[in-house]
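In response to reviewer comment 3 from the previous cycle, which asked for concrete evidence that the modeling workflow produces usable outputs, we include below a single protein chain processed end to end. The sequence was submitted unchanged, and the resulting structure tokens are shown without manual editing.
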Amino acid sequence: MNSILTAIEQTIRKEAQSTEEKPRLIPSFLTTDTPLPCILICPGGGYGFTSPREAEPVARAYNEQGFHALVLHYRTEPHRHPSPLLDVSNTLSLLRKHAEELKINPERIILCGFSAGGHLTASLGCHWNKDFLQNGICRTPGQNRPDGLILCYPVISSGESAHRGSFDNLLGPDASPERLEMMSLEQQAGAHTPPAFLWHTADDEAVPVENSMLFSMALQKAKIPFELHIFPEGPHGLSLATEETDESGDGSMTIPHVQGWLELSARWVRSL
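The workflow returned the following structure tokens.
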């Protein structure tokens, strides 16, 4: 199994023509004879870096729910769109191609993204069928389509509720209105978009809660199933909202009520 995952990482790095550290995969797979769902995790970081707090701790938490997990440290600034999207599309394509050997249920490959990683996750949910993602790795239509999206305080809109830094890093500070619209995902969701689980806090000052609400409304309009949880309090970047992922120094990012999102999302995966 490890050799297959190493080969997958080498393949996506070769496709990216990357001589740098990214893209990089950190697998957290369970020993099993039965194919399991696999959660492919995209940490946040405003497309400027990928946060370790939203990486391996989350993978271990999903292992405890009985799922395989895999962290993707995708390319970030100075790399622009579509580099991060190609990284996640190619990774998902190869996971599905090797699902039997990896003991993955090929119909339960779920993307989980945080903040800008949530934007990346939702971007594949909206753009998986675009021609620019078809290449030597993703050759079969739908090979890169996620079976579900877990969006944790996601960046979604390039409009009034935008997290401008994420879009500057992804598209450049002088992005055209057309490129901004293409990556404003409440405008791109449709019947082709997979089901989604979303959560946010109402007083998130960095990425306003309207981002999750706009995407949910777009899914509702397209008649795509979704589950949305808005917790009343909590700053941006909570990750698991546990002591393990609390970087505040004063305990303000350890919120027991918000911790429930992980189990709720696992129940949602099982219901798909």
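The first strand starts at residue 24 and ends at 28. We consider this sufficient to address the reviewer's concern, and the full set will be provided in the supplementary archive.
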